[in-house]
Amino acid sequence: MKRLLSGNEAVARGAWEAGVLVSSGYPGTPGTEIIETFSQFPNVYAEWAPNEKVALDVAIGAAYAGRRALSAMKHVGLNVAADALFYVAMTGIEAGLVIVSADDPSMHSSQNEQDNRQFAKFARLPCLDPADSQEARDFTIKGYDLSEQFDTPVLLRMTTRICHTSAPVEVSAQRVTLPAPGKYPRNPAKYVMIPSNARHRHPVIEARIQDLAEFAETFELNRVELRDTSLGIITGGIAYQYAREVFPEVSVLKLGMVYPLPHILIADFARKVEKVIVLEELDPFIEEQVRLMGIKLYQPPGVCGDIYPYPNTKSIFPSIGELNPGIVRESARHVGLLADHTAIKTGEKPTPPVIKDQNLLASLPGRPPVLCPGCPHRSTFYVLHKIGLPINGDIGCYTLGVVAPLSAIDSCGCMGAGIGVAHGAAVAGDQERHFAVIGDSTFFHTGIPALMDVTYNKSNVITIIMDNRITGMTGHQENPGSGKTLQDHATIAVDIEALVRAIGIERVATVDGYDVSTIEKTIKGWLKSEEPAVLITRQECVLMPEERKKWTPLSVVLDKCNGCTICFRVGCPAILKSEKLDPKYNRPLAEIDPLLCTGCEICAQVCPRDAILFRSQVERQPEIQASEDFKLNASKVAP
Amino acid sequence: MINSKYLRPDSQVLSFSLVGVGGQGTILASNVLAELGLNLGYDIKKAEVHGMSQRGGSVTSYVRWGEKVFSPIVPEGEADILVAFEKMEAARFYYHLHPGGLALVNDYSIIPITVSAQLEANNGPIYPRDETIRAALARVTDDTHWVEGVAIAESLGNAKTANVVVLGALSALMEIEVTLWLKVIEARVPSKYIELNQKAFEAGRKAVL
């Protein structure tokens, strides 16, 4: 039975087939769909935890209790969960535990591109690195066997390209039947990591990783593909696909388990080929281990790294960014590896490469990520921009407040960082008052302890919790404030205002996220005192299905508009400059794209000339001349 | 073995590069091409590249058909078929296309915020003229087709079917059974919209024939 599955869907499928009962994760691109897909299988438990640390603890609890468990997160989520990762590496488990790290080479939607294979080595865990959807499913299943055979959690390392590529996958309709779990273990020597017990466990896990390295020698996931032996490539993960695409004829050692490595297998492979190289994405993770084994990798004479505009840490291929066949080909050609192995065997002349016209490409207007039309975060950023004080931001849609013309984020590092950074600047005696801006889901994730620091240690930070009632950027996942579980079941919704008061903040207000003047008045009032304060700007994400039903495009009364540009300063993609000019000032008048406008009224509120109609006014006069004008001007091109 | 007039002599994999703007249905179109390839008995890979924003950003999607497909990414200059759902994106990604490949452009513009939100008049980037877009494509191929996907879809009553109009146009340029295309599309749209999508597909076919 073959199905078209993304890598994420394939992991979920494999986990279900392997009999996994419990999964917990926190949403994060590129891995969000793993838990979402798994939750839809019958007879499973799946949840969104408030953060990755909690998620991993939950999966560990299930695995201690004898149920196979899955925890999935993006690469930086594993930093949050690292404490849990390291203790479970020490204790081992009762039933299989697979931890998925969805890495993001090239940082398509992340703050760094850390290579989480390193975590496997750091914590002494086996690491599986699938190369496509089929392997994502197969390796997940294999991961549970490995986990139980060696009493170890298993790290399944995915990358964006594996997560978000769909390919046919052979699946089974059968789910394995596992023996009923026994009684919860009372085994303090193994599970209570007080120093005296932990000291006994450390040699156990060092021995375990050595046993795994021996096992790796004959593990079916590591395979030698002998073809032309003039070149041998040691590779794993997505890089295997590029090796096959660019060097279809050469020999490959395909490592499905990239930690620990099979020494004898690698040495044998190196002996069978004339030159051996390593092809891997990001860090020289395999390369360094292979070198430490004393295996001589092909070292291009004198040209190492000189095509990269940074100090490259690998011998041939770039250590920064995602690979692709073009990059692999160029790097290989540069060190003379492709001269012998091009596909010119057929006698075809290679086609000349397509030249990129850099002048043309630079002249095209970009489409940078921006807050959506109707985004309820826009109003607060408009106000904060006007106030002009430093703003310590956080991870979520609202990070896009950094984009001009709002330009209202001054720092953004990781989930939950904003409040602590603002507090740090404040206690350091920074002359300016600091704002911290954080979303509802991020506040639950790691914002709460930082807010406690603000009250406990008495700084004057003004925190704005942008509560759009959902985890927005990853595509609308429920969270502890939304009143619904992952399965859409009704549950307790955390009362953010009550929580903030319980932490000790006395100046708290919850306001409508779209209400520009109330937001401005409240913040300006608080700036007069030195007390810490929290403003909760509450408004559902405009892309939620219930909100979409309310969309009503607004329009501009051109007679009243004089092109003052204030509405352009809210940075809404739905507000365009029309081709009509104000006769007095010769400035372009505003117009509103009815296909994009949701009717949030932020622009109507800031317009000083009442030239933008509010919803109630639009509904009173459905035939709007302005909208007709828009159609005429919709295709705005250069003269 | 792939049977297509667009397959290059030195290649065993037929590569599509689909570009557009978030919200245009580019992903649905790439899903249709992926399923179509599977129905034709090929190995396929479909990869999506979309950045942070939910709506309004550039979206790129790759679909590859072959006996065996390795890389999910189509290397620059190796796409056999480039489909642009928004015309400026055709200029932005013209170099995806292999020399002589097929380019299909939806004659529709979506003005990006970098143009619409210029605070100072007449000194920022401008949306390119059609001639600029045509010239960019002409650097790699003469085999370019334009279809007014949105206008046709609007005339049928729903602008959202523009992506299916474009797929209809693509089908007219390829040698694959129409019934197979329709079967795949029908499986991916809600039943009450099947007839509308059939009409959109047929209108797209006629538009380039």
List keywords for this structure.
heterodimer, A: 639 residues, alpha/beta, Rossmann fold, 4 domains, 7-stranded mixed sheet, 5-stranded parallel sheet, 20 strands, 16% strand, globular, disordered C terminus, B: 209 residues, Pyruvate-ferredoxin Oxidoreductase, domain 3, 8 helices, 6 strands, 36% helix
Verbal overview:
The complex is a heterodimer of chains A (639) and B (209). In chain A, helix 16 (378-387) packs across helix 20. Chain A starts with a strand and ends in a 6-residue tail after the last helix. In chain A, helix 11 (239-246) links the parallel strand 10 (228-236) and strand 11. Chain A has 24 helices and 20 strands. Helices cover 35% and strands 16% of the residues of chain A. Chain A is globular. With 639 residues, chain A is of the alpha/beta class. Chain A has 4 domains: 2-180 and 188-216, Thiamin diphosphate (ThDP)-binding fold, Pyr/PP domains (Rossmann fold, 3-Layer(aba) Sandwich), CATH 3.40.50.970; 222-346, Rossmann fold, CATH 3.40.50; 378-548, Thiamin diphosphate (ThDP)-binding fold, Pyr/PP domains (Rossmann fold); 567-633, no CATH class. In chain A, the strands form 5 sheets. Chain A has a 7-stranded mixed β-sheet with strand order 3-2-4-5-7-6-12. In chain A, strands 14-15-16-18-17 form a 5-stranded parallel β-sheet, with helices on both faces. Chain B has a domain at 13-116 and 125-149 and 176-186: Pyruvate-ferredoxin Oxidoreductase, domain 3 (3-Layer(aba) Sandwich), CATH 3.40.920. In chain B, helix 1 crosses helix 7 (178-186), helix 5 packs across helix 6 and helix 6 packs across helix 8. Chain B has 209 residues and is α/β, with parallel strands linked by helices. Chain B is built from 8 helices and 6 strands. In chain B, a hairpin with a 7-residue loop joins strand 2 and strand 3 (58-66). The longest helix of chain B has 15 residues, at 194-208. The relative contact order of chain B is 0.15. Chain B is globular and about 50 Å long. At the A-B interface, strand 8, helix 11, helix 14, helix 15 and strand 19 of A face helix 1, strand 2, helix 2, strand 5 and helix 3 of B.
